[in-house]
Amino acid sequence: MRFECDAYDYPRDECRRLVLFASRGVSKRRVSVWIGPRDAGFSGWAYRDGRIRLRLGPKGDLRPMVAETKTLRRAYPDIPCGSWRDVLVFLAAHEFRHLHQFRYWGGAASEQDADEHAIEMLNRWRAETGRRPIEAMVYL
Ligand SMILES: [Zn+2]
Question: C-alpha distances in angstroms, 133 versus 20, 38, 88, 96, 113?
């Protein structure tokens, strides 16, 4: 995996470790991840050629995360965002899941599957850092 971090004062090595955590279970072969700055909030994009672009706003400005799909938004109205680290794990896991979908599912992207995977990885991360998992507000 190639990795570059050009976002504000985000610590490069820690960002790399968080991205590697978020990408567990997904092949990193021919993958390049770039983290760049954004005025506010955050965004991510996965390309079919293996590039992942993540954009993060200033550290103190990361708002609660909201799942992309309607069903998941109902289940998790606000995904509590403990810190920029939570945001990065969630976002990177979501985009890595898209790479997995492109490679193994015949090219179709599923936002619901990517969000579910990202919530699972975020909960693993929260468990590793001694926090409770995020629970769905309603049954899917
Ligand atoms: Zn997506």
Answer: 20, 28, 16, 21, 18
